[in-house]
Design goal:
Strand content: 15-25%
Number of helices: 16
CATH class of the largest domain: Alpha Beta
Distance between the termini: 72 Å
CATH topology of the largest domain: Phosphoenolpyruvate Carboxykinase, domain 3
Structural class: alpha+beta
Shape: globular
Helix content: 25-40%
Mean pLDDT: 97
Largest sheet: 9 strands, mixed
Number of strands: 30
Number of domains: 3
Low-confidence stretches: none
Bound molecules: oxalic acid, manganese (II) ion
């Protein structure tokens, strides 16, 4: 492909000299390019062709066994001073990072092809949208980037002659965690990643550019880059309201984004705008507008079934790249939580013989599908709208067995910002490390912050102060358990009942009950038709226990100290207000 942008050509040349590939290929996003790359990957064993009658256009990739999730301890924000990165993200000085990684990139592509992928994040023609260029030596990365972003002409058109693009350099290196680094240079609009082929570490448009770098650009330019799904909820009268939801990785964002309402919700529909990332800007009308910068879904496979996500099950039957799932003898795929029972025998995610008697899981808990958004039958007609969609409500959610009710509403934007700031969740398999450990995850952005968390909260407050019709803010928790340890709430499609209360609150038609932490649904305000949920279970789901909350308030105080000295006074004031209200509520 002919590229005339001199900034881009100069950077490609600089990288070519460093990485010393045998060949440089400019990717154009064409179908012919895809076919060629797939063919090469299949002959090299990087992809396994699945049963093309049952799963047309679908392939399986098996990653290196120690390269299956984001590696947060090897991910750095490289700002000139440590204070700019703050206390919650890992910092490395730009000089150290450049020295370390230059040595790793030097000659790293010898004998290999270096692919140059111009990509657009956001709809073509949108003021929200940003261009990135990823240079990589991985064909798997090229094939995934083609699904997850808009590759080729849309990016080059948006860029024109400008040098304003995120420079994303990626090499597989030797895939060793010893020599793996994911470094961000926000001031230089640059990402350097080496030593991993895993999505979150290697598809640099996603977490690296659309969250870490974009969060920094958002602060500079007065907008927000967030780890959020975006959906339209259509009422039976046809009116659609849009909401976003911030949840930590592997907490059900994809399922919620593609929700199918329960049977008794005739006329209600959920439209998918995005399942992972939202870019949000105040509009001239004083409302908050959102786009999904991505073009596809990189979703967690285990647990996906016709019950939990029928839209996804339908979507991933064709043109899908599976990573680290199990392979059945008939060339189809399987995972824990699949509609079909465990196969009598199959190959596990590492290609080893597996039977139901095997001790290990057949699919890796963080195995993934990559699929184009155009294949999703619930995709919103507004998905590609350059204006974005106007947001009426923001949900903050996380995995919590206790303390947090099913849903409650914040008093206002500032209180809502505080709810997001103090989000705590149990860890999941999306990152390496222990699973199920409670940790603070402000706005579900802990692994994706591109600058100091106090400044980040201040940006939330600043953006809010420019909104005359700010979204209402809610905290949700699908994961509260009863004394027997079982979940109290059915979740999945039944989460529609909570969305309905949220939408009705936005329309001032749902009753709430004031508590010391915010407004929970009045008992009869939550639609339970067709759901066997007893009053006692509902009470347990909505319960606000001042004793539990006084412990939470103390833990929050400690966290706000650890968050550094740039925590906005407004956030400390919200904490003090909560502490006082909880004290009053104590028996
Ligand atoms: C993801 C993640 O892949 O959050 O979306 O890890
Ligand atoms: Mn995510």
């Amino acid at each position: 492909m002919e590229i005339s942008n001199q900034h881009l050509l100069a950077w490609v040349e600089e990288v070519r000299r460093l990485c010393k590939p045998e060949q440089v290929v400019m990717c154009d996003g064409s179908e012919a390019e895809r076919e060629r790359l797939v063919k090469e990957c299949v002959s090299a064993g990087e992809l396994i062709a699945l049963n093309q009658d049952k799963l047309p256009g679908c392939y399986l990739h098996r990653s290196a066994p120690h390269d299956v999730a984001r590696t947060e301890q090897l991910t750095f924000v490289c700002t000139p001073t440590r204070a700019e990165t703050g206390t919650l993200a890992n910092w490395m000085s730009p000089e150290d990072a450049r020295t370390k990684l230059t040595a790793l990139y030097d000659g790293a592509m010898r004998g290999r092809v270096m692919y140059v992928i111009p990509f657009l994040m956001g709809p073509p023609g949108s003021t929200f949208s940003k261009v990135g260029v990823e240079i990589t030596d991985s064909r798997y990365v090229v094939l995934n980037m083609r699904i997850m972003t808009r590759v080729g002409a849309p990016a080059l058109q948006h860029l024109g002659d400008s040098g304003d693009f995120t420079r994303c350099l990626h090499s597989l290196g030797d895939l060793s965690p010893e020599r793996r680094f994911i470094c961000h240079f926000p001031q230089d609009n640059t990402v350097w990643s080496v030593g991993s082929g895993y999505g979150g570490n290697a598809l640099l448009g996603k977490k690296c550019m659309a969250l870490r770098i974009a969060s920094y650009l958002g602060r500079k330019e007065g907008w927000l880059a967030e780890h959020m799904l975006v959906v339209g909820v259509q009422r039976p009268d046809g009116k659609v309201r849009y909401l976003t939801g911030a949840f930590p990785s592997a907490c059900g964002k994809t399922n919620l984004a593609m929700l199918v309402p329960p049977q008794n919700f005739a006329g209600w529909k959920v439209w998918t705008v995005g399942d992972d990332i939202a870019w949000l800007r105040p509009g001239p009308d004083g409302r908050l507008w959102a786009v999904n910068p991505e073009a596809g879904f990189f979703g967690v496979v285990p647990g996906t079934s016709s019950k939990t996500n029928p839209n996804a099950m339908e979507m991933i039957r064709r043109n899908t790249i599976y990573t680290n799932v199990a392979l059945r003898p008939d060339g189809t795929v399987w995972w824990e939580g699949h509609d079909d029972p465990p196969p009598e025998r199959c190959l596990d995610w590492q290609g080893r013989e597996w039977t139901p008697a095997s001790k290990e899981k057949a699919a890796h808990p963080n195995s993934r599908f990559t699929v184009s958004a155009t294949q999703c039958r619930s995709i919103s007609p507004e998905f590609d709208n350059p204006r974005g969609v106007p947001i009426d409500a923001i949900l903050f959610g996380a995995r919590r067995r206790d303390t947090i009710p099913l849903v409650f509403e914040a008093r206002n934007w500032q209180h809502g910002t505080f709810l997001g700031a103090t989000l705590t969740s149990e860890t999941t398999a999306a990152a390496t490390g222990a699973v199920g450990v409670l940790r603070r995850d402000p706005m579900a952005m802990l692994p994706f912050l591109g600058y100091d968390v106090g400044d980040y909260w201040q940006n939330w407050l600043d953006v809010g102060s420019r909104l005359t019709r700010p979204p209402r803010v809610f905290r949700v928790n699908w994961f509260r358990t009863g004394p027997d340890g079982n979940f109290l709430w059915p979740g999945f499609g039944d989460n529609m009942r909570v969305l309905k209360w949220v939408i009705d609150r936005c329309d001032d038609r749902a009753a709430g009950s004031e508590t010391c932490i915010g407004t929970v649904p009045a008992r009869n305000a939550l639609d339970r038709q067709g759901l066997d949920l007893k009053d006692a279970a509902l009470d347990a789901l909505l319960r606000v226990d001042p004793v539990e909350w006084s412990q939470a308030v103390s833990a929050q105080a400690e966290f706000l100290v650890n968050a550094g000295d740039r925590v906005p006074p407004a956030i400390r004031a919200e904490h003090a207000r909560l502490a006082a209200r909880v004290r009053e509520a104590l028996p």
